[in-house]
Specification:
Elements: H1 15-25, H2 33-46, E1 50-54, H3 57-67, E2 75-79, H4 84-91, E3 96-100, E4 122-125, H5 137-147, E5 150-154, E6 162-163, E7 166-167, E8 174-178, E9 191-195, H6 201-208, H7 214-218, H8 238-249, H9 251-268, H10 270-274, E10 287-288, E11 294-297, H11 301-313, H12 329-334, E12 336-337, H13 342-350, E13 351-354, H14 362-373
Parallel strand pairs: 2-3, 2-4, 3-12, 4-5, 5-8
Antiparallel strand pairs: 1-9, 6-7, 6-10, 8-9, 11-13
Helix pairs in contact: 1-8, 2-8, 3-4, 3-6, 9-14
Bound molecules: pyridoxal-5'-phosphate.
Pyridoxal-5'-phosphate binds next to helix 3 and helix 4.
Length: about 375
């Protein structure tokens, strides 16, 4: 029987070499040579004012909630169809997550429903670029401007994707990236905060450095460092940054190889979509994507369960997500749904993610396509 895991982290082959360099340098704490290389890569490739590696995307979102000065009772608008960290980072500051339904084509927050969810307590909008496909950012930025709100992009899945030619993570006031091993560019655990609005740069460094001005001290801008703000410990060590650097060097190749697998799936499932048996992902014309995931939407939960079971019987692992946050125990207690959540509920019940990793063989993908195509046949 085949054994096709859902995900298999890709290694470029240079990770251990760079880790050995970090080891030899004797600098193992954060903000050494490799962290600086990674930060510079992000600033160049994404065009942010400032990029700061963190130990996770969750950490970067937490920093962004502090930078946005979120206070108890403030409201933050976000999709419910997302990972818990999108909400948790703000709930930790006492905020109420206000969940807006997603679009049925991209599973991204429905920009046409955001304005109705705004109240006098709203402080920020957190668009999540699901599957590395951009939210309708022009509309979202325009709403934010008119209502004086901050936009924090959860670009955990969005590295190397673009919206109208602009890299994801460069559009909102700030953004968070993830390098978790399930993402495209990885370091096991890892993330980055991207700061695009210069007003937040100095404070971002301070919050990330335990609320001290140590970064300024190291640059010789102050003659001692001290406690100047709230903050926590958000720096990754150099070992992790060394691993990440090996991945960043190969980022274009990783992106290309993932896109090839994605394109094959997309072609295979075209006829099934035509026959009305599944829906394939939609990439809006103004977006380029990074093949972060390939998913199918089934007509109902029963057909999805049947496909999962049949693939499992052939040794192929697939996963679904998310339990919508508005129907989770903590989401119900801490947050609220702004309105109807039917597209969110549908995605939670009917969306299935297929294996997508570098090294996935064409024969695996053939079997996957064949098993899925057999849906409704008996
Ligand atoms: C993966 C992910 C996160 C969390 O990233 P970590 O680096 O594991 O903290 C947050 N939001 C979304 C949308 C994600 O996919």
């Amino acid at each position: 029987m085949m054994n096709v895991p859902f995900n298999k982290p890709y290694m470029t082959g240079k990770e251990l070499w760079y880790i050995s360099q970090a080891h030899a340098s004797g600098h193992l704490a954060g903000d050494g040579t490799f962290t600086k290389k990674c930060n510079a890569w992000l600033e160049q490739n994404i065009g942010s004012q400032k990029a700061l590696l963190t130990h996770s995307c969750t950490a970067a979102l937490e920093i962004s909630a502090m930078l946005a000065d979120i206070r108890p009772g403030d409201e933050v608008i976000m999709p419910s169809y997302t990972f818990v960290s999108t909400a948790n980072a703000f709930v930790l500051r006492g905020a109420v997550p206000v969940f807006v339904d997603v679009r049925p084509d991209t599973q991204n927050i429905d920009e046409t429903k955001i304005e109705a969810a705004i109240t006098e307590r709203t402080r920020a909008i957190v668009p999540v670029h699901y599957a590395g496909v951009a939210c309708e950012m022009d509309t979202i930025m325009d709403i934010a401007r008119r209502h004086n709100l901050l936009v924090i992009e959860d670009a955990a899945q969005g590295i190397m994707s673009t919206y109208k030619g602009r890299p994801l993570g460069s559009i909102g006031h700030m953004a968070a990236l993830s390098f978790h091993e399930t993402k495209n560019i990885i370091s096991g655990e890892g993330g980055a905060l991207l700061v695009n609005d210069p007003r937040f740069v100095a404070r971002a460094e301070i919050i990330r450095e335990k609320g001290t001005n140590r970064s300024q001290f190291f640059r010789g801008q102050v003659d001692k460092y001290t406690w100047v703000d709230v903050g926590s410990s958000y720096l990754p060590g150099e070992i992790m940054a060394a691993f990440l650097w090996a991945q960043m060097e190969e980022a274009d190749m990783i992106n290309r190889r993932r896109l090839d697998i994605w394109a094959n799936y997309h072609q295979w499932f075209a006829s099934l979509e035509k026959a009305g048996k599944v829906r394939r992902p939609t990439i809006p014309r103004e977006c380029t994507h990074n093949a972060h995931m390939y998913y199918l939407m089934f007509p109902d939960i029963e057909s999805r369960s049947a496909v999962i079971a049949r693939l499992k019987a052939r040794g192929i692992q697939t996963v679904f997500h998310y339990i919508p946050l508005h129907s989770s125990p903590v989401g119900k207690e801490m947050g609220r749904a702004a309105d109807d959540m039917s597209h969110t509920d549908a995605a939670g019940e009917r969306l299935l993610r297929l294996p997508l990793w570098i090294g996935l063989e064409a024969e695996h993908a053939d079997v996957i396509a064949e098993v899925v195509a057999a849906i409704n046949e008996n």
